[in-house]
Amino acid sequence: MNILITGGAGYIGSHVVRLLSFDKSVKVTVIDNLCGGDFDSVSVLREFFSENSFTFIKLDLSEFSKVQELFEAHTFDAVIHFAAHLQVGESVQKPIKYYMNNTINTTHLIAMCEKYGINKFVFSSTAAVYGEPTQMPITESTPTNPINPYGMSKLMSEHVLEDTAKANEDFKYVILRYFNVAGASTDNSLGECHIPETHLIPLIVHAAIGKRDKIMMFGDDYPTLDGSCMRDYVHVEDLASAHIKALEYLANGNESDIFNCGYGHGYSVKEVIDTIKKVSEVDFKVEVAPRREGDPAELVADSTKIKAKMGWTPKYDDLELICTSALTWEKTR
Ligand code: UDP
Fold first, then answer.
1. Ligand 1 centroid vs 270 CA: distance in angstroms?
2. Distance between alpha carbon 275 and the CA centroid of its chain, in Å?
């Protein structure tokens, strides 16, 4: 099986590529513009593969003619599409940046799949498509109503996939709506690194190891138990395994579908801070800051469907383990 992975050098993408390396029948081509971080995941990933089974091409999805040349030159069996901008706050300030990359470049990628007859597409989507849901936990039939351009840009791409599949019965997709992915790989080879870093767990880890002097808690007046936002934090390796399941699901001839991916319980920002204080044994400074624009109070997944239909069996549903893995990776990378 020959798989194209966009954004395969990024945080979640690299973990999926690593898992795919354990299947010796798989060949992987990663395209990535390397804009997301300063960690050289490509060199790490190369070590997992034999020489002919891993190809890396530095490429931005907005370079339409180069993307087309890639499809012209290779025959892919499936595409896993990660490459995207991902900061909720930035998307509110720079919506066009998000619609251009997350929606328009994705639409072009889907068009290439149609043109070159690639019929299996796994798409990285997000719980942000649900906006501020009234029902918790969130099922796949909870109404979508994004409250920020990031969520909307992903939802629009979901619609492009759905309409493409309606018009072309051979084209099948799996949309994975991620909740809050966190942690590092269990072998400590890969972890989270974004530039700039905006995600909660790596930022708290930075405070614990002295890379920053404090952590800002965005809002303590939300309608939650302790006033801080609640999120469903999923270990990155469990999320990566959902992509392997999605490929199997499509290879087995199943119908296109949408799946939530989370553990089904939330932790507050305060609880995450306390957990990292505990595992790091460092009492770093915490400051309450105003709410961050575009942040819903609570996002928790109902993942019954992915477990039932794909047999997804998460192994690392443990906040201390997630935080410890993030801390260990940051200390040793
Ligand atoms: N958050 C925070 N301080 C930070 C970064 C994030 O309080 O420095 C909060 C943020 O407001 C949200 C939660 O942590 O409620 C998770 O945010 P993150 O950016 O990690 O993921 P998101 O939920 O936006 O995908």
1. 11
2. 23
